[in-house]
Amino acid sequence: MLDSIKDFASWFFVTGDPLIYGADVSIVLASAAIIGVLTYFKKWTWLWKNWLTTVDHKKIGIMYILAALLMLFRGGVDALMMRTQIALPDIKFLHPEHYNQVFTTHGTVMILFMAMPLMFGLFNIIVPLQIGARDVAFPFLNALSFWLFFMGAMLFNLSFVIGGSPDAGWTSYPPLAGLMHNPGVGENFYIWGIQISGIGSLATGINFLVTLIKMRAPGMTLMKMPMFSWSVFATCIIIVLAFPILTVTLALLFLDRFGGAHFFTLDLGGNPMMYINLFWMWGHPEVYIVILPAFGIFSEVVATFSRKRLFGYKSMVFAMLVISVLSFFTWLHHFFTMGSGADINAFFAITTMLIAIPTGVKIFNWLFTMYQGRIRFELPMMWTIAFIPCFVVGGMTGVLLSVAPADFQFHNSYFLIAHFHQVLIGGVVFGYFAGLYYWWPKMFGFKLDHTLGKWAFWFWNIGFYVCFMPQYSLGLMGMTRRISEYSWDTGWAPLNFISTIGAFLMGIAFILQVAQIVKSVFKHKKVSNDPWDARTLEWTTASPAPEYNFAVIPRVRAVDDWWETKERRAKGIADDPQPELEPIHMPKNSAIPIIMSVCWFVAGFGFVFGWWWFYVPGLIGVALCMIARSFSYDTDYYIPVDEIKRTEAAIRGSV
Amino acid sequence: MAQSVAHKGKHSADHDHGHHDPNELKILGFWFFLISDVILFSVLFATYIVLRQNTAGGPTAEELFEMPGVIAETFILLTSSFTSGLAVLAMNRNQKKQLIGWLIVTALLGAAFIGLEVSEFVNMVNEGATFTTSAFLSAFFTLVGTHGLHVSLGLAWMIGLMIQLGKRGITETTKGKVTVISLYWHFLDVIWIFLLTIVYLMGVM
Amino acid sequence: MDKKPRSLRTLIAVVVTLVTLGALIWGMFFTADYLVLDPKGPIGEAQKDLIIISTVLCSIVIVPVLILTAIIVWRYRDNPKRKAAYKPNWHDSTILETIWWGVPILIIVVLAAVTARYTYALEPSKPIDANQKPLTIQVVSLDWKWLFMYPEEGIATVNTLTIPEDVPVRFQLSADSPMNSFWIPQLGGQIYAMSGMSMTLYLKADEVGTYFGSGANFTGEHFGKMTFDVHAVTGDDYQKWVDKVKENKGSTLTEASYADLAKPGVMGETEFSSFPEGLYDKIAFKYVVDGQSSHHGSSGTADETKKDGTDMDMPGMSHDSHQMGESHPGH
User: Fold this and answer.
1) How far apart are CA A380 and CA A438, in angstroms?
2) Which residue of C has its CA nearest to A490?
3) Whole-number Å distance between alpha carbons of C157 and C312
4) Do A244 and B17 touch (CB under 8 A)?
5) CA distance B36 to chain C (A)
6) Residue C19's pLDDT is what?
7) Does the structure show a pLDDT above 70 at C88?
């Protein structure tokens, strides 16, 4: 009896590595500390009422961002572990098997559990404010999306201590990821972690499309919509069209592993190449899903901090829509080397190059927004300026990679690694940082510390170039990705060592950013509505915005409406008289999203291990939650005028 | 004075924007959901088309498909789409009883469809054509089964809705729900037409 | 702030920068060869040309943009003493927009034309020189080693490859493992080696030498060990080497020893004086069921547009029947 328990435990829990035990201990300690603090300060009710059951888009946004930063930490630690292992030849820091798990989780976490939620966090906080709405179209669904993402991410991360991490790469190609070569449960964690959070992503895409189409303030025609909102619109179109592909692909992979199907198996007629095609039919658009909002952020930031209208608004919108369409026709460039023949390779090479055109146009438009402006080097603008050269070079290496016959030499090498890190860090991460710094005052009512921010900025940037520029060289020297060991006579050691130094510089930068946040939380000045002298509607309401966003829904006349209003005020023209306040219609909090997501978590966990006594109750729980939601009619309430007046007065009093 | 009147007028327009018609939002949102569902089925169709020749020595489409049952399923589902339309018409005339009645007919037809499909699957499995026999059969069962799952979920949803209609009658909220489910039902009908053509007709031809 | 620590800090910054730059330059130029940029065969040569052409074309836009960025950021910084113009409402210019839509379009058109030409010229399954009979080598990716079979010589090797210089080599690639990618940077670009099918890659070495080769696509635990040396030798030396391998009758590859070889594991270089005939076909088509028209018949969407799908049946297909897996991975 005891022995069988022992056997089970050593299979169920990941064992054998001191790193893992260390992580186990710190997870237990951290959880105990959180529970202790919450209990000691009697904060459980507060947490439940104000956060866990909230449907307020601003709070959901903040939770997304917190979770994303946590995941950035995890993905970053993964990265540093990898860089340590390959800093020099013959380092015995990670066993190859462990190294494979680490790069798999690094990629998955960074794309799906870091970039996506950080993006959704910014969507949530900013879009309704920017278009003058009181919430998103479906606040309940929005909360559900968040909790699905969160539970999916937790399920995925659980594999670190239970069952074993996936180790077939973030792309998880069969047959390597199939049962034949990968019988463990790690791949199941990968599938279900992504699947559960993916449903949430799809719902968010639909939610924001409807919000943007139906809930813009009166007067805000589509062509007066701020550029960030446009970028969200373009992104959501891609999400709605691309995410179902991922859902099906992972479902089929799971059916192969769980139900003995033959979609991607080698035997009985399966076709592994189909997985690779399907994966990238989602995977390539996914890259544009995360980059387009960054483009939107740069557009906002560059106009605000140059004190100048965004150059070529129409052209920017057009370029973005062109990118979102083209993004669906380039997937094959991820595997030119599959030998699909010259016709097909040439076609996909050219579609890939075409994307460089609208992207280049955007760069020019940002440059000419700065041209004849007055550039202030605040933190958001610093990240934007750093982005331009970085992304331009990363984009250029992308074009080099798109040249199919040349790609035969770049493919799977560190040249490719350097390229996509340059566009994903230099584009996406820099963009989201710019957005975080820019909108932080709107979220919390204070700016982040400038000095520490500058330090972090320089560490990030220098670290980035030190880390990734050598990797272009390494690629041309023949170093392939995902290897965990190499010999001295390859000659790759010096550049790898330098690259590792760069990675640690970025690690320091992240710590500096955490320090920056902590310091700013304790020591800051409260800011007004509009601390940056900005241009769009989100800066007309308080920082942080009240629960209902706008006491009176604004009316819009122009692109950069708030800027124009300020101009009019400067000329002494009075604002339009404000209409009278009216009771505001608001959605009620709900516990269903979190409960339903927990049920999904339970079901997912059951599917990972094939335990019906987990997944059947889990799925029943999901069904009950859906029924409960369908049958509840008491889902909203009104904020009375008196209360609005009191809130507004308090806001005015506090600044 | 005139100005303030004008403002009042404008203001009521704002007011509408402050409180959006929830049904309008829901229906638009549901359309986007249907688009994503179209993509989902497209991928399954593509998978099926890629794999349908890969029978790995197992039974082929020609050997397995029995058209009479499939044609019966088609007629039943088409009719149910029609009756769900009648339900919406009854709702628009504010006739609660007819509405629930037509929904019951729709649900019964849907259940009959599912019953036929299940028996078709059982027959195939008895003939040794199972989910794990070949890539072709994995793809077949997944594609057709996903549609069947959609129909079954629709049935459960419809039953829930009938209870709500019985309790609350025809209100703005229940109207929105009926509109959405009828959209969904028609959508499943359209998907079935593609299934019929691509899977069954092309399979036996 | 007094002056001293500040100048000390500057000093530290300068030293650190110089050391880093020095190390970088040393690492970049004096420690290893840029294999991709130092090709020893016609395919690698053409790919290098293409890399250079595309880099130059891209630079036409990139370099001015980088310079422009620096100038604009410096000139229009917010500074009370700055005299540059400030036009907060200037946001539109048809001429400028035309230029920066037009120039990239022109460059991409040129690049696309070049790419298309090279894509057809460098199609991996295209013979290098029609007049010269190529040497065929069958390559199988195993967990975690490479098996090379020389059907014309009847010998096989593991993790080491010897080829004659100036003779085109026709590699037939398959796998008895997850998908790998066969890459010898100095001879030319890579192509996938996939289970259940056969691919073709033509390469040629112009010079005698030893070239680095590796499995470029991740195949699990010890895939990093799948490196191998390619020895390009003179025709005479090649013949000598073949004879030497053949003489060593003690080491043969049989069906049984292949089964052992295919088991996951790492090993060094080995040479076999013989191997079972038809082993390659057996491996490449082991998942094909008799009586079925195609196995990996169609390889996903990308392949649906292929015009000839005639080469679908695989069982019994000899490795000489050209163009089977090569331009159609799915067939």
Assistant:
1) 5
2) C32
3) 30
4) no
5) 19
6) 84
7) yes
Q: Which of C230, C186, C38, C224 is nearest to A89 (CA)?
A: C224
Q: Are A603 and A589 in contact (CB under 8 A)?
A: no
List of residues 6+ apart from A36 with CB closer than 8 A = none
Give the minimum alpha-carbon distance from B31 to chain C in angstroms, rounded to a whole number: 27
Residue B52, classed as helix, strand or coil, is coil
| Residue bearing tokens 């959070």 | A197
For residue A168, the chain C residues in CB contact (below 8 A) are 218, 220
Measured in whole angstroms, the distance separating CA A297 from the mean position of its chain's CA atoms is 14
> Predicted confidence band at C240 (pLDDT cuts at 50, 70, 90)?
very high
Question: If contacts are CB pairs under 8 Å, which of residues 125-164 in chain C contact chain A?
Answer: 125
Nearest by CB: B53 against C294, C299, C301: C294
> A544: cis peptide before it, omega within 30°?
yes
List CB contacts of A546: < 8 A, sequence separation 6 or more: A647, A648, A651
Report the pLDDT averaged over residues C36-53: 95
Tokens of C65: 């943009």
pLDDT beyond 50 at A587: yes
- Taking CB atoms and an 8 Å limit, are B56 and C292 in contact across chains? yes
As given in the structure block, the two tokens for residue A74 are 């995890």
Is 90 exceeded by the pLDDT of residue C84?
Answer: no
Domain boundaries for CATH 2.60.40.420 within chain C: 135-288+296-327
For A233-284, the pLDDT digits (tens) are 999 999 999 999 999 999 999 999 999 999 999 989 999 999 999 999 999 9
Question: Mutate which of A412, A416, A422 to disrupt the C interface (most C C-beta within 10 Å)?
Answer: A412
Hey, which CATH number is domain B39-204, 3.40.50.460, 1.10.260.40, 1.10.10.10, 1.20.120.80?
1.20.120.80
CATH 1.10.8.60 fits C135-288+296-327, yes or no: no
Contact between chains at A206 and B33 (C-beta distance less than 8 A):
yes
Q: Could you tell me whether strands C135-142 and C169-175 are parallel, antiparallel, or unpaired per DSSP bridges?
A: parallel
Residue C312: is its pLDDT beyond 80?
Answer: no
Cβ contact (<8 Å) for B29 and A137? yes
Q: What residues contact residue B45 under an 8 Å CB cut-off, 6+ apart? A: B143, B194, B198
- List the structure tokens of A604: 């997912």
Q: Do B51 and A138 touch (CB under 8 A)?
A: no
Q: Which of residues 292-351 of A touch C (CB under 8 A)?
A: 306-313, 315, 332, 335, 337-346, 348-350
Give the whole-angstrom CA distance, residue A291 versus residue A358. Answer: 13
Please write the tens of the pLDDT for every residue from B11-38. 444 444 456 788 899 999 999 999 999 9
| Residue A28 confidence (pLDDT) | 84
- Provide, rounded to the nearest whole percent, the portion of chain A with pLDDT above 90: 86
Show me where the domains of chain B are located: 39-204
Asked if A252 and B133 come within 8 Å (Cβ–Cβ), the reply is no
* Cα separation, C176 vs A266, whole angstroms: 10
Nearest-angstrom CA–CA distance, A19 and A9: 18
Preferred mutation among A333, A340, A417, A498 to probe C, highest tally of C CBs within 10 A: A340
Is C73 close to A375, i.e. CB distance below 8 A? yes
Interface test with C, best of A364, A378, A391 (most C CBs within 10 A): A364
Q: Do B53 and C293 touch (CB under 8 A)?
A: yes
Q: Does A210 touch chain C (CB under 8 A)?
A: no
Residues A510 and A549 sit within 8 Å (Cβ to Cβ): no
